Every structure is written in structure tokens, then in C-alpha cells.
Amino acid sequence: MGKYGQLDPKFSLPHHKLIYLIREIQVPIIALLHGYCLGAGFELALACDFRLAADNLEMGDHRITRAICMLHGASWFLPRLIGFARAAEIVYTGRHLDAKEALKIGLVNKVYPLGELNEKSKEFIEKIAKMPTRCFGYNKAMFNYSFVNDLTSSLQNEAYLFNENMKTDDSREGHKSFLEKREPKYKGK
């Protein structure tokens, strides 16, 4: 059994296991994108929690122009990220997007000048790293669960994971730091 009572799936392709693990691992996965992010690389980026891009990004999936189908999760991720109509247009036409358009439609979270990508991404990553990782993991699990379950089940799952989070040291630190009017110091416990 996997986390939260779901069966561990069996995969015929190694890439599928990688995509699954990116979603199941209870820590944030951040993709740094620059230059070309196409085809399977595009699909891999879609699985990540955050996508930070350089302004020279070109992303999309042109494989249809060579009669090659999606294979690594775009059919699941892309419509959820940007809606069916936009996802269909990108995949069915093989169109590429630049960084500006990808940001506008919510395909990437941030866009930085290429020369600042490493520095700005490091700042973003450090901010995320200071967050309570167990709480982040529970929130990620809630999102994953809600993608395949109805509202009632999702609300029940949220209540369960909320209560699990309340048992953590980080949750206690969050409350304590609020009352003491100071920045919290989370330890991932």
C-alpha cells in the first residue's frame, strides 16, 4: 500500500514511475526551465509543483506533427493546469508557447530574465524550504486526492490530514510563533 491507503501502481514504463513519484513525494518539486522544454521534458515539468522559467523559455508538445502521442502524463496534468480548451489546442496543434504566454495562462509560476534565473530561483526555493514540510506534504496529498475523488470524500480526507498535521511539532511551532509575534522556525517534524 502507498501513502494514504492507495495501492502502489505498477508501471510498464520507467518514466511513468518517475511522474508518479514526483506527485507522491511529500515535498515540493520545483522545475527550473530555460531554453527548450518540449515533448517528454514538457510532460515532466507538468508533474512538478512549481515551474520557474527563464524569459527564453519555449515550451509545448510538437510530437503530434510527427504522429507521436503524449506518453508521460500530459493528458492528466495539462487540462488540470490550464483547462481543456487550452490544453487541447497546445497538444492537437503542436504549438509552442513562450515564457510570457506560459505565465499568462498559468503554465509556469514565475518568469525571470535568463541571467537572473539561478539567483531568483534560489530565493524562491529558500522561501519554500523554510515552510513546514509536513504541512506542505499534507496539502500536496489533499490536492492529489481531490483530483480523483468527489467533494465529500475530499472534505473527509482534508479533515483527516488536517488532524494529522495538528499533531506535528511544526504545527505547534506555527501557533506558538503567531502568539509570540515572531517568525516561525520549522524543523520538518
SSE blueprint:
Elements: H1 14-24, E1 30-33, E2 36-38, H2 39-47, E3 50-54, E4 58-60, H3 74-82, H4 84-93, E5 96-98, H5 99-104, E6 110-112, H6 117-129, H7 133-147, H8 151-166, H9 169-179
Parallel strand pairs: 1-3, 2-4, 3-6
Antiparallel strand pairs: 4-5
Helix pairs in contact: 2-3, 3-4, 7-8
CATH superfamily of the largest domain: 2-enoyl-CoA Hydratase, Chain A, domain 1
Q: Low-confidence runs (pLDDT<50, min 5 residues)? A: 1-5
What general outline do the C-alpha atoms trace? globular
Q: Which sheet architecture does the biggest sheet show?
A: 3 strands, parallel
The proportion of strand residues reads 5-15%
Discrete helix count: 9
Would you state the CATH class of the largest domain?
A: Alpha Beta
Name the helix and strand elements from N-terminus to C-terminus, one letter apiece. Answer: HEEHEEHHEHEHHHH
Number of strands: 6
Total domain units: 2
Task: Identify the CATH architecture of the largest domain.
Answer: Alpha-Beta Complex
Description:
The chain is mostly helical and 189 residues long. It has two domains: 3-129, 2-enoyl-CoA Hydratase, Chain A, domain 1; 133-179, Lyase 2-enoyl-coa Hydratase, Chain  A, domain 2, CATH 1.10.12. Helices cover 53% and strands 11% of the residues. It contains nine helices and six strands. The protein has helices at 14-24, 39-47, 74-82, 84-93, 99-104, 117-129, 133-147, 151-166, 169-179, and strands at 30-33, 36-38, 50-54, 58-60, 96-98, 110-112. It has a three-stranded parallel beta sheet. Helix 2 (39-47) crosses helix 3, helix 3 (74-82) packs across helix 4 and helix 7 packs antiparallel against helix 8 (151-166). The longest helix has 16 residues, at 151-166. The two termini are 23 Å apart. Residues 1-5 have low confidence and may be disordered.
